[in-house]
Amino acid sequence: MADDADAHGVGEAAGSRTTAALRWLLAALRQLAERLAAPLRAGDGPNKFRLSSVETHTTTIDGDTGWEYRPPATLRCPDCTAGILQADSRGAIDCPECRLDLPAERFGDLELLGLTCPVCRASMQHGQRHPEDFDIPEWATCPNCQYHWEFKHSY
Description:
The protein is α+β, with helices and mostly antiparallel strands. It folds into two domains: 2-40; 54-150, no CATH class. The chain has two helices and nine strands; from the N terminus they run ααβββββββββ. It has helices at 2-7, 10-37, and strands spanning 63-65, 73-76, 83-86, 93-94, 101-102, 111-116, 123-127, 139-141, 148-150. Strands 1-9-8-7-6-2-3 form a seven-stranded mixed beta sheet, with no helix packed on it. It has a two-stranded antiparallel ribbon with strand order 4-5.
């Protein structure tokens, strides 16, 4: 009788249904695996998932702590009022207009015009938490890319 079923194509039809069901199951599993893996893949979008330094205590994407990592600063020249870019916190303060040359330690004596984000080059928001104790910025945040910097000090 099995020979009769095969002769009429019944066994063949059952085999093709099984094959079709297996193909469908594999496709469904493949699709499920793709959906589960998609959030774990690195994309080309703006989120690079760089984490802030633990000391910054923020939920920003990227950050640094300490004066040596301070973002580039623009200061007002006390002689000619031009803007002076101090790219590094340890670099000399040299006015390109009047050739005033000050050591990096004089940073607090000059007017801070702004800080520049080291990641995206946007202007940063900055401020002081203890203006009576420090004459320098104590924090800065980029509104564009969420980079955050903190001046590290003990209380």
